[in-house]
């Protein structure tokens, strides 16, 4: 399945939102999901970024059912950056529908441990600057 997700902060709190389907579903379990994840604002990137994972990761809002360890292929667009970054990640946690605290349904995608993705992690942290260590609430763990 190919999904396209544009991530924007909600009023008052950065929050992931805005999912639309952008393609036909692949045979179940046959191939990893492909998701286009577009961050238009730094607040949305901050709310989704997971610096707690050694190689980094992102929260992806989705209503699709996933299991821990499932493969997800992301095509990631960052704020003010024309480049799209491909990431072959794995589901590291799941936020179910109707989660406590009003959290958005979705999955946490752990980045792979490779040079290309380490460079992406640095790019994300550069884009976020000092806000990467902010105490503001996020959609992540």
Name a few traits of the molecule.
alpha/beta; 141 residues; 7-stranded mixed β-sheet; 7 strands; 2 helices
Brief account:
The protein is α/β, with parallel strands linked by helices and 141 residues long. The chain has helices at residues 42-48, 115-128, and strands at 2-7, 19-21, 33-39, 57-61, 71-77, 84-95, 106-110. Strands 2-1-3-5-6-7-4 form a seven-stranded mixed β-sheet.
* Helicity level: 10-25%
Biggest beta-sheet profile? 7 strands, mixed
Strand order of the largest sheet: 2-1-3-5-6-7-4
User: What is the overall number of helices?
Assistant: 2
C-alpha geometry: globular
* Estimated share of beta-strand residues: 25-35%
User: How far apart are the first and last residues' alpha carbons, in Å?
Assistant: 26 Å
Low-confidence stretches: 7-30
Mean pLDDT: 76
Radius of gyration: 14 Å
Structural class based on helices, strands and sheet pairing:
alpha/beta
Q: How many β-strands, per DSSP?
A: 7
Structure description:
This protein is of the alpha/beta class and 141 residues long. Helices cover 15% and strands 32% of the residues. It is built from two helices and seven strands. The protein has helices at 42-48, 115-128; strands at 2-7, 19-21, 33-39, 57-61, 71-77, 84-95, 106-110. It has a seven-stranded mixed sheet with strand order 2-1-3-5-6-7-4. The longest helix has 14 residues, at 115-128. The chain is globular and about 35 Å long. The two termini are 26 Å apart. 33% of the residues are buried. The model is unreliable at 7-30 (pLDDT under 50).
